[in-house]
Amino acid sequence: MNVNYLRISVTDRCNLRCTYCSPPGACDFIPHEEILTFEEIERLVGLLAGCGIRKVRLTGGEPLVRKGIVELVRRLAPIEGIEEVSLTTNGVLLAPMAAELKAAGAGRVNISIDSMKLQTYQQMTGFDALPEAISGIHKAIEVGLTPVRINSVIVKGLNDSVEEIEALAGMSMDLAVAVRFIEYCPTDTHTSPASSYVPNSEIRCIIESRLGTLVSVPSGDMDGPAVYFKAPSSAGTIGFISGRSLLFCPTCNRLRLTSDGRVKPCLYAAPDYDLKTLLRSGAGDEQVRDLLRSILRGKGQFTRVNSAVQEFRRFSMQSIGG
Ligand code: SAM
User: In terms of CATH, what superfamily is 5-320?
Assistant: First the structure.
């Protein structure tokens, strides 16, 4: 697989406390001086563009809480070779920033919403912010940060009822958005039992029982492991990212840059590479590029598929960037 997609966690801080990601008190934040500066991120993206990276996605933590995020988009969008800069956000702060992000060169946004019910949303995120997140979706569509994709993680006992799943999937009936179900995976910040996980095959059955048979639609060639479907007469699509029930390593086209400057070829498997120390030691472009090239060449070896034990290595989602 051609590795053309870089996800950058620009901060490990977040304005929500999702039970399955960064519950209250579960994480120690990385000191500010250990977080990559905009100059360092810009330099790495420039070098990676020279190695074949074409798409960059800013994530976190919550990327919109990073001070100056619009400026970062403005710096990254014109880099030669970069075709798109997009963001993954919980959408809570998006509405007032959407037009500025678009003007700075952002392509599109993924917005994470796990429930359309006020009470469940608050229970899962710790905040009563569903109306803000929904207005973020509408604003993103209005200013053209499209196609908007909604990311939802279903957790048993929290938002796995037929009504909850139907309401999430149902957004694709009226709006030209892709609603994507991401299988919950364990991380180091919480101890949800294995039984919290709902496989996407079950979610698909529930959706088909309410919205009709889903018909497969082609995904873009840079969409990686997501697979997309359409419900009858829907304006948008429904996607599934089945990182837990399927081993999709052969279609994984991404590299990750953590907020503290480590490059990870695989979300689940070791190793990662400390680029920040190399950059801060005064290394020249050629030296940094050599390391990036060797990481890209070796990506295929460091996958869950190739791990002797196909277990999840526990990690902090908000510092790596989900
Ligand atoms: N704050 C932003 C947001 O909410 O989209 C970006 C960071 S968040 C870590 C990125 C994505 O990772 C979200 O869609 C979130 O639902 C997903 N995520 C976080 N923890 C997860 C877990 N344990 N399993 C599966 N997906 C997870």
Answer: Aldolase class I (3.20.20.70)
Name the E strands within the chain.
Answer: 5-9, 55-59, 84-89, 106-112, 149-153, 178-182, 215-217, 227-230, 237-241, 254-257, 262-264, 273-274
Q: Which residue do the tokens 């999430």 mark?
A: 168
pLDDT score of 21: 87
Q: CA-CA distances (angstroms) from residue 150 to 87, 233, 291?
A: 12, 19, 35
Residue 88 beta carbon below 6 angstroms from any ligand 1 atom: yes
- Predicted model pTM: 0.93
Q: Tell me, in angstroms, the distance from the centre of ligand 1 to residue 182's CA.
A: 9
Residue 22 CA: which ligand 1 atom is closest?
20
SS3 181: strand
Give the model's pLDDT for residue 305: 46
Q: Is 89 in the pocket of ligand 1 (CB under 6 A)?
A: yes
- The set of long-range contacts for 301-310, using a CB threshold of 8 Å and a minimum separation of 24, is 302/265, 302/266, 302/269, 302/270, 302/271, 303/249, 303/252, 303/265, 303/266, 303/268, 303/269, 304/247, 304/249, 304/266, 304/268, 304/269, 305/247, 305/249, 305/250, 306/249, 306/269, 307/269, 310/247
User: pLDDT tens for residues 84-98?
Assistant: 999 999 999 999 999
Model confidence pLDDT, tens digit, residues 125-150: 999 999 999 999 999 999 999 999 99
What residue ranges do the domains of the chain occupy? Answer: 5-320
Instruction: Tell me if 90 CB under 6 Å of ligand 1.
Output: yes
Atom 2 (ligand 1) nearest CA: 89
